[in-house]
Amino acid sequence: MSIEKLFGSCSKLQIFPRHAGYSVVVQGLYDDVKRCCNKMGLKVHTTNHSLGIWGKKEKLPSQELLEITTMCGHGMVPASLVKDALNDIKTGKSTVKEAALKLTRPCVCGTFNPDRAERLLAKIAEKK
Amino acid sequence: MRIDPDKCIACGNCLPYCPMAAIAMIGDIVVINEDECVECDCCFDFAGCPTAAIEKVDLAWPRILRNQFSNPVVPTVTSMTGRGSEEMKTNDVTNQFRAGFFGLGVELGRPGIGVRFDDVEKVTMALAPHINKFAAVNPVTELLEDRTTGKIRAEVLSEKVMSVLVEIIAPLEKLPALLQELAALKTKVNTVFCASLISRLDENGNSPVVEIARQWGFTPEIRTKTNIGMGKIPPGYRGEAHK
Ligand code: SF4
Ligand code: SF4
Q: To the nearest whole number, what is the mean pLDDT of chain B?
């Protein structure tokens, strides 16, 4: 069994129970993760290095929309829904918070972060 | 998925919910482009159609693959669950990726573009000659007609899905050849893809794949997913590598 969890800092990782025997995966700058593990007497085991996105990148929406849509790793939050949410904000149909919550619903795994979506929506809405 | 024309009032609510932009308003009629629809159920589950005009249709083989590879909560029709294996997440227990080998994951269609299996086949056929094996616990591997050539069953090739993850294991000396194949695929597939390299770290925490990837013009990201070696092998477990 594996656990994927974001630890905000090295000290938070230190409190994770080591005797449980779960595989733990940490995301972050590799050098920081390694340093943190060394401090804890742990030996980093296996890494996954992304080589980035390739192919027909011209089909992708703008970077600012991608920042929101990719919070759902399964692609269930479409760029068109983000545009719709921005329109709701612009026309006063919904608040930024309500718009962020609307985007959260299709992400059935619950990884989409509504607080971050709210911040990003506010930033885009402000520019328009 | 289909829209019942007798019930639809063309309010347009469902249009932005479709990740594939497969729903269109044509005049005052709203229709789903069946060929572009990946059967992800987003419109049905989340658009809140005021007249319940959006209807699920019975999906036969091979169209049902669209649903399986696109809606993360739908049970699989291949014998696998999920879109890929546990890859490196449990490598401290499974020892699937050993020293001297590496894993390559190629995820096509993500984020939000979708992919047809004929594009997936371009990847599996390009990689097949250089690899040890396709990952066993992976639904794409199950769709291969021939695991030595990477050929996918002909009847599924035109099916479109949200995303697909191809996973392989190969000896380290094959990495340059595989990277060259990847570079060539950039212009051959009609979608986007993300590639990632999985490797067992050495005594000093160094990855054997990073330098090789750089030499071949790739830039491995410095943000990684790292298995920090806390997994304990359950008694009696012999590990993937020994299967
Ligand atoms: S099932 Fe998914 S892809 Fe098909 S029309 Fe509905 S939202 Fe679009
Ligand atoms: S939400 Fe329902 S009524 Fe409105 S356009 Fe879509 S199918 Fe038609």
A: 91
End-to-end Cα distance, chain A: 46
Q: Which residues numbered 69-88 in B keep a CB inside 8 Å of some CB on A?
A: 72-73, 86-88
- A17 pLDDT above the threshold of 80: no
Name the pLDDT band for B230 (thresholds 50, 70, 90).
confident
Structural domain span for residue A30: 1-49
Least reliable range by pLDDT among A31-45, B118-132, B162-176: A31-45
User: By three-state DSSP, how is residue B181 classified?
Assistant: helix
Class of domain B2-57: alpha beta
Angle in degrees, 0-180, between the axes of helices A114-127 and A96-104, rounded to the nearest 10: 130
Range 182-221 of B in CB contact (< 8 A) with A: 182, 185-186, 189-201, 205, 207, 209-210, 213, 218-221
What ipTM does this complex have? 0.85
| Whether A88 and A43 share a structural domain | no
Which is the closest atom of ligand 1 to the Cα of B70? 2
pTM here is 0.89
Task: State the pLDDT at residue B88.
Answer: 80
Tally of domains within chain A:
2
Q: Report d(CA B179, CA A51) in Å as an integer.
A: 10
Report yes or no: B50 at the A interface, CB cutoff 8 Å.
no
Domain co-membership, A45 together with A62: no
Find the residue in B nearest to A104 (Cα): B46
- Mutating which of A38, A49, A111 best tests the B interface, going by the most B Cβ atoms within 10 A? A49
Nearest chain B CA: its distance from A67 CA (Å) = 11
B118 lines ligand 1 (CB under 6 A): no
* Distance, first Cα to last Cα, chain B: 41
Q: Are strands B101-108 and B151-152 parallel, antiparallel or unpaired?
A: unpaired
The answer to whether the CB atoms of B112 and A78 lie below 8 A apart is yes
| The pLDDT of residue B138 | 87
Average pLDDT over residues B72-98: 73
> Are both A61 and A44 inside the same structural domain?
no
CB B183 within 8 A of CB B172: no
Domain boundary among A33, A49, A65: A49
The answer, yes or no, to whether residue A14 has pLDDT greater than 80, is no
Per DSSP bridges, beta strands A2-4 and A23-29 are: parallel
Out of A52, A60, A81, closest to residue B17 by CB = A81
pLDDT reported for residue B243: 33
More confidently predicted of A10 and B113: B113
